[in-house]
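We were asked to recover a plausible sequence for a given structure. The inputs and outputs are reproduced exactly as logged, with field labels preserved.

PROBLEM: sequence recovery
POSITIONS: 245
GIVEN STRUCTURE:
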């Protein structure tokens, strides 16, 4: 456990580049991040002693292609952990967010280094809101919630982390064997935007349609409003919003 760190993901990346021996499942947890990061380089608000900030390391010989869809799989693990305490309220927003009552409660950031078809290092970063301080909430520019707003008594972060790590182990075992083949139906059942109007944004390009879910590769399937045809959105710089946002 680190009291203060720039970023748990950055710490593991530095460890790799400094040739430190990391074993599968090596986990870094911090009380505070001074430079917490989310997807597309966005800041992740990380006040001291309030939430869960963690990163976990895995090595694979299947290449960078194994990282495809991993954030979706880990999202299931995070949602399952949250639902253990808040009931079946946690839902998934493609590609890496977890929502409760349409408000963001957690996020996943996967970073990978290595060869496209050889040895590869995967770093799984997870941030989960447990108890958001009022002054920190003012820094967030989107609807949010936390665990303690959805439970009867304050959450023990160590207890939550124990369940989360166990869920990650289960999901990683399945993902290594089947990739998303055995998981995408589960993800679709937890899809926050299932059959709802969405905007798919890529740079200045915006397409609107109805969210259908994901396929076995992790691509988002959307029925285009204008053409009534299904198109696929694939990670990278693509983002998803509700149609009314």
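RECOVERED SEQUENCE:
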């Amino acid at each position: 456990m680190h009291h203060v760190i720039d970023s748990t993901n950055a710490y593991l990346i530095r460890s790799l580049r400094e040739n430190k021996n990391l074993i599968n499942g090596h986990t870094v947890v911090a009380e505070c991040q001074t430079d917490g990061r989310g997807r597309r380089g966005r800041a992740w608000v990380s006040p001291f002693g309030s939430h869960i900030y963690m990163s976990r390391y895995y090595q694979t010989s299947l290449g960078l292609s194994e990282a495809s869809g991993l954030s979706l799989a880990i999202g299931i693990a995070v949602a399952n952990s949250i639902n253990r305490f808040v009931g079946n309220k946690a839902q998934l927003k493609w590609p890496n967010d977890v929502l409760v009552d349409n408000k963001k409660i957690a996020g996943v950031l996967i970073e990978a280094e290595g060869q496209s078809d050889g040895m590869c290092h995967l770093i799984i970063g997870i941030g989960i809101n447990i108890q958001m301080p009022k002054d920190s909430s003012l820094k967030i520019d989107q609807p949010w919630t936390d665990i303690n707003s959805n439970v009867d008594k304050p959450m023990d972060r160590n207890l939550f982390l124990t369940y989360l790590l166990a869920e990650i182990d289960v999901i990683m075992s399945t993902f290594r064997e089947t990739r998303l083949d055995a998981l995408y139906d589960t993800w679709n059942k937890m899809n926050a935007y299932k059959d709802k109007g969405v905007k798919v944004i890529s740079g200045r390009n915006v397409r609107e349609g109805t969210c259908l879910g994901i396929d076995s590769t992790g691509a988002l399937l959307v029925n285009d409003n204008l053409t009534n045809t299904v198109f696929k959105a694939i990670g990278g710089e693509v983002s998803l919003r509700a149609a009314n946002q």
